Amino acid sequence: MARQRTLTIEQEFVERHPSSRAQYERALKDFPSGVTHDVRYLKPFPIYVERAAGCKKWDLDGNELIDYTMGHGALLLGHAHPQIVEAVAAQVRRGTHYGAGHELELEWAERIRELKPSCERVKFTASGTEATLMAMRLARAYTGREKILKFAGHFHGWHDYAIPGEKLPFTQEESPGIPRAVFETVVVAPVNDLDFVDRRLAEGDVAAVILEPSGASWASIPLPEGFLQRLREITQRHQTLLIFDEVITGFRWSPGGAQRLAGVTPDLTTMAKIVAGGLPGGALGGRADIMSLLEFRDDPDWNARHRVSHPGTFNANPLSAAAGCACLQLVADPGVQQHADAMASRLRRGFNQVLVQQSIPGFVWGESSVFHIALGHTCANQRGDDIRVPEGVTPEVLKAGMSPRLALALHQAMINEGVDLFHGGGLLSAAHTPEDIDRTIEAFDRSIRRMKDEGLFEQV
């Protein structure tokens, strides 16, 4: 006979993680809300990790977790990949910051250019947020126009120009700490509305269109078939630059990113996460004539009035360069992406079968090696199979995924079962195995049953 549970999901979570709770109480004295990244905030406290390897990590209380945060998408090869560890360990003994050029930065750029031919020239940054900020600035300088067009729901970092239209409601016209004038320079296009884009670009004041080529928030709101091809035609017709934000899709969707899969060449590409092998670092690549605005010339007027400046203490630092070179050498093999994609498809199918079998309103969807979970909602094509594009679901539901109450309960329940999700879904790696996926599906099945037993779906 199965042992009757006496603890709720949250009570078990607290009981299993006393060391994480103690560390969180300590963190509250140092950090606002006790966290160093908004997504890591979790009630009643987040878990604290002691070590990680492959697709697993272990918290301070020794609990093993199959990981689907994967360094917020940076770890396509898994945690502590031996070749990356070796490259970084060798470099740290040679120095972490030279304040000068070095050979690894050249190799790093060459590997990017080989995988992404659209990147005729490259500049390194310290993060993806910096990369999208630089792309927007270059676009405005190149075209002489001030406005940037972005799509509702797409995430491009946390700088001021990336905020409009990212969160629900997409029409929000203010955000704490951001001047109203910034919002006036950003045009937010309705979700996947290319007719709006065509009409708006005709006004001639938009420097560039920026988007995630996966669709908003790494394919949570998928793009229609042919969307990128038509967008490229529209931007070229209106002499507007096209920026692909490949911070997540770059090297994950394929060795050459989403642009290689779609056969669409952007003018500028932003990169981070995988590009730096899981260490801090990002890059911007693009057309040589646009990137030339960053050049010094033997012309004081050009340098003072026209050149786009770009300092940055940790740009192309040797440690990130070492990790990036090692990582890009490995992910150039398409088998890496194919394995992670296959594991993600197996997981999405298994999760959907659980929801159908338990008669729970919900669906799981995604593409490439990512997945998203929506509980409390239905879609027309939920039949217990892999889903790329949910049918009959609003963009608002796809962006939100589920209510905060269900999201919290699912996150806690899955951690209790030995699985750590990320932001209502997750990202996979080449280190995940079929056995890991099957264990995760079993954990999801038990978690949904517990949520059902606690009446969490009764108010849906």
TrEMBL record:
Q: Does Transferase show up as a keyword for this record?
A: yes
Cofactor(s) named in the record:
pyridoxal 5'-phosphate
Provide the E.C. number(s) assigned to this enzyme. 5.4.3.8
Which pathway does the record list? Porphyrin-containing compound metabolism; protoporphyrin-IX biosynthesis; 5-aminolevulinate from L-glutamyl-tRNA(Glu): step 2/2
Give the Gene3D superfamilies listed for this entry. Aspartate Aminotransferase, domain 1 (3.90.1150.10), Type I PLP-dependent aspartate aminotransferase-like (Major domain) (3.40.640.10)
The record's section on InterPro entries has: Aminotrans_3, Aminotrans_3_PPA_site, PyrdxlP-dep_Trfase, PyrdxlP-dep_Trfase_major, PyrdxlP-dep_Trfase_small
Question: Which family does the record claim for this protein?
Answer: Belongs to the class-III pyridoxal-phosphate-dependent aminotransferase family. HemL subfamily.
What is this protein called in UniProt?
Answer: Glutamate-1-semialdehyde 2,1-aminomutase
